[in-house]
């Protein structure tokens, strides 16, 4: 096994070097070592990929689709994405010039921010939110500005957004990261709430990067894309990981105005060249003949959500009813006198339940913990039993 030569030990990117890996992964891997633990940490659907989608990938392999695809993704998939967005959310994008297929939504986020940020530019990030936004902004030389939304029920209000832009300097702010349905909160913006944001940013020299990966997982209301209200300044991020349980296929996409996509596609080409062909053909099938596939999954998620939220509140962890995604985000009672990390560690070690501490999702997450209900109802019920006993022991 080679050891790093002493002459190059200090040859390192000084932005990346001090960063740790995602705290979501840190805790998931740490808790995986605890025997008998029920893990409600990762946001990964526990369903299998639909059979007809798997068959499309297999057929691609049989047909020897083993050569480079177009860098922006096979045209057939981009056409399927365009048709899907138009049918489901009434937004229109030219598959030739306004869509890029990426290696999951994560690459789409990176490419999009890379096409915007110059060193010193500020990106507004409402927290708690998806853990990767902040380090990506830092890696690209930008300055992440966290906006704590806890006191507003996890909503970024137009009033608060305007105040932060004024404070940070409108000439310095280049983008707003918006994530909805929200991870970790499950918050879903209504049309009126989105309009508040639009009214603030429409005249500013800034983009909105709208991560809508959970768009198909809403309960009781239809998802409204920000791109419908602000098409010229919205960079839409989406993918197949959550809607069709295709996390391992790694297919995401960017949809945005042509001039922006031209630059984002350059970064995509530099980083990955092109996505995998079998995964792209599977995604094409999912968005062509599998638009209704998420319905059955969504029904099961909603049943789990209703049960787990009722239990959490009954046990003593204040939890708002999430309107989307598959997470609960609960408040840790002040009487326990535990930070989010301390609580998560103690619950794992003593209660044998794995959760993600809220601080993994930014400053606004302190004092909370996230549970994923993308797990079986049997596991969820047993986890609630264990949480109840753990909580009673904490109080005694």
From TrEMBL:
GO terms for molecular function: pyridoxal phosphate binding; transaminase activity. The keyword Transferase applies. PANTHER family: AMINOTRANSFERASE (PTHR46383:SF4), ASPARTATE AMINOTRANSFERASE (PTHR46383). It comes from Companilactobacillus alimentarius DSM 20249. Belongs to the class-I pyridoxal-phosphate-dependent aminotransferase family. GO terms for biological process: amino acid metabolic process. It holds the Pfam family Aminotran_1_2. The keyword Transferase applies. Its cofactor is pyridoxal 5'-phosphate. Its EC number is 2.6.1.-. Keywords: Aminotransferase, Pyridoxal phosphate, Transferase. Residues 37-387 form the Aminotransferase class I/classII large domain. InterPro entries: Aminotransferase_I/II_large, AspAT/PAT-like, NHTrfase_class1_PyrdxlP-BS, PyrdxlP-dep_Trfase, PyrdxlP-dep_Trfase_major, PyrdxlP-dep_Trfase_small. This is Aminotransferase.
